[in-house]
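Morning, I've got a small favour to ask if you have a moment. I owe you a coffee for this, so here goes:

…
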Amino acid sequence: MYFVEVILPLSLAKTFTYSVTEAEFHYLKIGMRVAVPFGKSKIYTALAIELHQNKPVLYEAKEIHQILDEKPIVTKIQIAHWQWIASYYMCAIGDVYRGAMPSALLLESETLISQKTDSFIDTSLLSDDEFLIYEALQQQSSLKVQDIIAILNKKNIFPVIQKLIDKNILVLQEEIQESYKPKLVRYVRLHPKYDSNQGLNDLLEILRNASKQKEVVMRYFQLSASEKKAISVKKLVEQSKSSPAIIKALIEKEILEEYFLQQDRVTFNGQVSKKQLQLSEEQNNAFVAIKERFLHKEVCLLHGVTSSGKTEIYIKLIEEYLKTDKQILYLLPEIALTTQLVGRLQNYFGNKVAIFHSKYNNNERIEVWTQVLNNSDKAQIVIGARSALFLPFNNLGFIIVDEEHEQTFKQVDPAPRYHARDAAIVLAHSFKAKVLLGSATPSIETYYNATSGKFGLVALSKRYGNVLMPNIELVDLKDKYFRKRMTGHFSDVLIVEITTALSLGEQVILFQNRRGYSPIIECITCGHVPHCQQCDVSLTYHKHKNQLRCHYCGYSMAKPTHCQACSSVELTTKGFGTEQIEQELLSLFPNSKTGRMDQDTTRGKYGFEKIIDSFKNREIDILVGTQMLAKGLDFDNVSLVGVMNADNMLYHPDFRAFERTYQMLTQVAGRAGRSEKQGKVIIQTYNPEHNTIQQVTFNNYEAMFTEQLYDRKIYKYPPYFRIIKVTLKQRDFERLKAGSIWLYQVMSQNLEMPVLGPEEPVISRIRNEYIRTIVIKIPMNVSLVNTKIAIQKMLNSFEAVSQYRAIKVTINVDFY
């Protein structure tokens, strides 16, 4: 008997055993995909992780359906890394597998429903719903479950299907479909019969009266003479200013022949810069110091102020590792950043750069996956957001984690809830590779690790080209409102500075960490505020679409004309978001072009590129945006940055609130004055004397670090304690309350460490599910592995209590 151990792309913690034939056993390799039956009739793409001859004890092993790959598409190091993520972050290995693979490689069976061909049907006996399905099957041979939901316009369609199966009218069939197709580009060439001189004469004779077709053929000859390479239909249409219809006519006349070639979806066509990168003295010292630290340490932190030229040092280090034929991974926190950086890296390294993130479609992601697996030249440097960590590297030498402090490196939902920075350090260890963490405002944990000697530390304290740090000015909003010196949400100081910058032809960035027009609409008469029907949050007003929207579940409604509670028409908005700032700018600076960069304006695949390019090309004078703007973007013509309200983040109920505020404000301020001229930053705040805001003003990271470290020690937070957050969700409020108290009591009695809860979070209901949280603080001197085993046992016994089984429990390890 031969068996294969597989991971299924389902939220299941254990692996499963399937039986294989002897031939399959010898053909199969670890890392290949196999199609396996699971449950009553479903087929899934599983991943082979072990071959053995041990029969499972608890169940009869089913046979696999088929082997899907000719060679492994996942490496052994990847599998080991996924298993580490599953155990460290306390999630199912199936979740990691599903999160890591491009979804087109995870074929799932589409349940297809078709009509039985050999049965007689009396349509008069069918109900209305049954007849609709029957009628649809007369038009096409099979339907998917989704199609039937659309036809009947109801979700619960299984009873209807079941009745039709019972009446012997329908059959179900499971079918796996391959969804990846290589991209084919359509090319044309001259038909062989016109190759000779005589042929060309005949051709001109044929086209004598067809002037447009003749023009296209002449342009074809010019292109083939000058370019000496295949000519695509798209290029020929563009160059000859004709239409695809004319080319179609030439193909039908057998003057041109069409053919198709497979092409990579992401290619670089520009010129690689021949210019040698020159580092300043300061940068060069840092470059040498990093190489020196790497002799003794696996991880090094580059703490360089904003605009100190960290990217140039990265490029220089990448050059060093490319000489050793190693693969390089460059992780960024935000897709907007990859947009800017790809151009810079392609100028140096050309087609060696591959990009991998969620805005790319399935086919593009599979191409990069294959290139990395095959150690292709086209993917020697991979730039991406956190998911790029899961690619099948086989010769990784160097990982850069840029802006390592960013919270977007930590995945919140769904599982695996991993932190890309920490997982990257573990992955690098498997390859004996080096990791460089870069940031102007490192996270407290990283800086603590660097100063305590666990990581290497290199500092860059001056901006590139000795440009001065921006001059930061605080504006007291209380005082300005009192003296009536505010126009909308703009103080007189900010208006004067914007006017000055625009008159000098310079650009301005305004930062407001809220999207939409305003977060609250309130009735002046009775004080009623419209809330989401499914979540405990007020609806945000979006003026552009004239609707109220919930930013948690997506629920939306038209803006009401009167109060839903007392029918008063006196409605007012409170608070403000990016949309309102944009509106106010139009009336304050009608002659200037404004742009907005937030989640609403960057939805499309090229959403970021469009906005960043038009700002870089100076088509936009004032750019308003949320935190997307704060992350490492480089615009050389920005002289002024305005922070509309710095207090938004200070009072979050979060132990990182002050650290995050410092990081966010320092990063936003760092967008100003990045070329010759010193930049200016105006921070509007109700608390100009607040310690954190003062630390930003004087760019005093050390003071912030020392103060926060002191607080963390007293209140038992990282880096002195590790934190695990357990979240419980359930629609039934009373059951959730009882269940969370039960779990808390078990944990606090059995764990000899601080356990807090069960707490009702600020937003205590999302999508109609009530929420409770329990926080466990694990001291650094206590075994993390044993504590997790104990927690898992408690969760298992919690699940065994029948009335609590319906409560959803999620675990977030190293909750940041």
